[in-house]
């Protein structure tokens, strides 16, 4: 899914000033060696590169300068990356601009540990709650920082979360991000579905107005659920998906969304009560019931001591309407 990204003027919002730029050389002074291709996207090509002056490994998003729409899209992303710089769990931009007469690019720090989805897919089993807890803490810290700066991501997914070689988490790809204003202030609802169906909030899939910050928290909940249990809770969901209705009914009855999803797919798993509670909160069908990112960051699962894991439900019931979940790791 996609859509035209509105570019809001930065002066339209009273936002906290971003931290000063790092001492890295401006783009015009980079002396870059381009190496292998990392991947292709709607913007163009991503390359692995090295700054010859510093030896730093870089990732570079490159598009053809003659395609103005792509240049505008990268400039929009760079603009928002400047706003959210300064957090260790948001990818750091080193510079952006014309590389030569035919190419425009954004230079990023390199996160060489791979996509979090690939890490999960290649695991011989589940990652373990202790590791997921640490990753979740980093993810929500980065997301809360973006929201404090007025930026909602709108495409949060495991494919857009990288790890460094030391295991530090980095949120990447702000191509669909939007400058929405402060999370504690009134702001217009966003329009137009974007992101990926397996991660998108129900209000986003319905093509109605939605709050970008609340939609990010739903996507974050999907990421954490998938890390804990090894499969997507709502793989390739649709606006009229029966699973949204089932979750709404469960939540109105005071039942756990985590337990509900596991029952659909006849899954048996053990997590701590606090882990299930945080995922339940983020997967609230009513976006007004989801926590803000800074509230999620202060949740007892992330800030308190580890607790004993327990079954997520009392009995296993196979849902007649359900299908097989898409597995991304052995369960």
Automatic annotation (TrEMBL):
PROSITE patterns given in the database record: PROTEIN_KINASE_ATP (PS00107), PROTEIN_KINASE_DOM (PS50011), PROTEIN_KINASE_ST (PS00108)
GO aspect biological process, one term: intracellular signal transduction
Gene3D superfamilies linked: Transferase(Phosphotransferase) domain 1
Protein family: Belongs to the protein kinase superfamily.
Keyword Kinase: yes
GO terms under cellular component: cytoplasm
Pfam families reported for this sequence: Pkinase
GO terms of molecular function: ATP binding; protein serine/threonine kinase activity
Keywords: ATP-binding, Kinase, Nucleotide-binding, Serine/threonine-protein kinase, Transferase
Matching SUPFAM superfamilies: Protein kinase-like (PK-like)
Residues involved in ATP binding: 61
Source organism superkingdom: Eukaryota
Domain Protein kinase stretches: 32-302
Organism whose genome encodes this protein: Prymnesium parvum (Toxic golden alga)
Name of the protein this chain belongs to: Protein kinase domain-containing protein
């Amino acid at each position: 899914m996609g859509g035209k990204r509105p570019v809001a003027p930065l002066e339209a919002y009273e936002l906290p000033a971003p931290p000063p730029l790092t001492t890295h050389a401006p783009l015009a002074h980079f002396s870059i060696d381009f190496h292998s291709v990392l991947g292709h996207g709607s913007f163009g090509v991503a390359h692995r590169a090295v700054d010859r002056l510093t030896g730093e490994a870089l990732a570079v998003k490159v598009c053809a300068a003659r395609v103005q729409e792509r240049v505008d899209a990268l400039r929009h992303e760079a603009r928002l990356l400047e706003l959210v710089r300064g957090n260790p769990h948001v990818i750091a931009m080193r510079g952006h601009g014309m590389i030569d007469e035919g190419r425009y690019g954004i230079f990023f720090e390199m996160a060489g540990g791979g996509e979090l989805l690939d890490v999960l897919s290649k695991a011989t089993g589940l990652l373990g709650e202790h590791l997921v807890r640490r990753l979740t803490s980093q993810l929500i810290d980065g997301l809360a920082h973006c929201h404090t700066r007025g930026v909602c991501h709108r495409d949060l997914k495991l494919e857009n979360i990288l790890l460094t070689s030391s295991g530090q988490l980095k949120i990447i790809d702000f191509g669909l991000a939007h400058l929405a204003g402060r999370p504690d202030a009134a702001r217009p609802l966003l329009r137009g579905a974007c992101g990926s169906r397996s991660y998108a909030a129900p209000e986003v899939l319905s093509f109605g107005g939605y709050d970008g910050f609340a939609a990010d928290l739903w996507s974050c909940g999907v990421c954490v659920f998938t890390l804990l249990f090894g499969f997507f809770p709502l793989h390739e969901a649709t606006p009229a998906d029966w699973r949204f209705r089932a979750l709404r009914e469960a939540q109105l009855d005071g039942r756990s969304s985590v337990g509900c999803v596991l029952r659909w797919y006849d899954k048996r798993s053990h997590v701590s009560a606090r882990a299930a509670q945080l995922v339940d909160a983020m997967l609230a069908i009513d976006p007004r019931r989801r926590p803000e990112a800074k509230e999620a960051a202060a949740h007892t699962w992330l800030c308190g001591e580890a607790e004993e894991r327990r079954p997520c439900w009392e009995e296993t019931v196979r849902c007649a309407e359900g299908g097989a979940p898409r597995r991304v790791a052995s369960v």
